[in-house]
Amino acid sequence: MGRMSHAASKQATHLTFMPAVALITISSGLRLLWITSGGFASGYFATPHGRAFSLAGASAIAAFLCATLVLRPAQARAAQLGAAVAGAADAQRATLAKELANIQRRYAAASAAAPAMLMPGAGGMAVARYLG
């Protein structure tokens, strides 16, 4: 039982720590963009550098929002439904299993979408300074 409590505590800490780190990273990126662009001057965003940095940042923020607003709640709901299916009567089990399958499909789609948004974000930030 002690190991299970430690594992649950570690996961809870991870679920709090990682979004906090992501928000700090996003905030620092926006601050650097503000400094580099001279206060978000529109002329900067017309340059290849400005377009690349802003589109890459928007892509990374979209990935964060997808993970926060879709993946995390779907994972929590799937865990609840999994436990409910295990202890449910046969009549309820089919309904719960169907809902669990729907959530698993949504989770799978979002799991593919988040990295697909994050990769152009990271790549764009890596090469933006060499454009133009």
Rg from alpha-carbon coordinates: 20 Å
The number of helical runs is 3
In percent, how much strand structure appears in the residues?
under 5%
The count of domains is 1
- Mass-distribution shape: elongated
Query: What is the straight-line distance between the termini?
Result: 59 Å
Structural class: mainly alpha
Secondary structure: helix percent: over 70%
Poorly predicted segments: none
Most strands sheet: none
Tell me the number of strands.
0
Q: How do the helices and strands follow one another from N- to C-terminus? A: HHH
Mean pLDDT: 89
What do these coordinates show?
With 132 residues, the protein is mainly α. It has one domain. 86% of the residues lie in helices and 0% in strands. The chain is built from three helices and no strands. It has helices at 2-36, 48-87, 90-127. The termini are far apart.
Write the layout of secondary structure elements.
Elements (H helix, E strand, L loop, with lengths): L1 H35 L11 H40 L2 H38 L5
Helix pairs in contact: 1-2, 2-3
Keywords:
132 residues, mainly alpha, 0% strand, single chain, 86% helix
Give a short summary of the structure.
It contains 3 helices and no strands. The chain has helices spanning 2-36, 48-87, 90-127.
